[in-house]
Design goal:
Blueprint lengths: L1 E4 L5 H11 L8 H9 L4 E6 L2 E11 L6 E9 L8 H15 L4 E6 L3 H9 L3 E6 L10 E6 L4
Parallel strand pairs: 4-5
Antiparallel strand pairs: 1-2, 2-3, 3-4, 5-7, 6-7
Length: 150
């Protein structure tokens, strides 16, 4: 398994995984992934035998002492979960944030115990709750943050 920049030809696979990973929610459409890459945001793919099995991306805004990062998505094919792929994708994003000395923010479903534990292991703390953040299910989200690293 390798983690490398996400390839545009794999964006349709991202959309397929969104539908599997986030049932009952409003999964990202293809144009949303294109928009993220067009904006120059860092996105990674996890590849096994050349096939996309996970993806992750974030917005990186500002520069210098004003830099800030927000993780937009991390998803791993259910058949590949539990193998450290989500961790590897997260670490790739955090390395970029750290290069820019940027704090990192994210939202995560309050019932996603595995993801919350992953984020907490990597320095994130809960900073609040966004009621009915996910639509159309109305599920709540924790807001989490990780301080900038020198």
């Amino acid at each position: 398994m390798t983690v490398e920049p996400l390839r545009r030809e794999d964006l349709e696979r991202c959309v397929e995984l969104e539908k599997v990973l986030f049932p009952g929610e409003d999964p990202w459409p293809l144009h949303a992934f294109h928009d993220e890459l067009d904006a120059g945001f860092p996105y990674f793919g996890a590849y096994a035998d050349g096939n996309l099995v996970g993806y992750a991306g974030m917005a990186l805004m500002g520069g210098g002492s004003w830099a800030e990062a927000e993780i937009h998505t991390i998803g791993v094919d259910p058949a590949w979960q539990g193998r450290g792929i989500g961790r590897d994708l997260l670490l790739g994003l955090l390395a970029i944030a750290d290069e820019h000395h940027a704090p990192v923010f994210l939202e995560v479903r309050t019932d996603n115990v595995a993801a919350i534990a992953l984020y907490e292991r990597h320095g994130f703390v809960r900073t609040g709750v966004r009621k009915r953040y996910y639509q159309p299910s109305g599920a709540d989200a924790y807001t989490m943050a990780r301080e900038a690293r020198p």
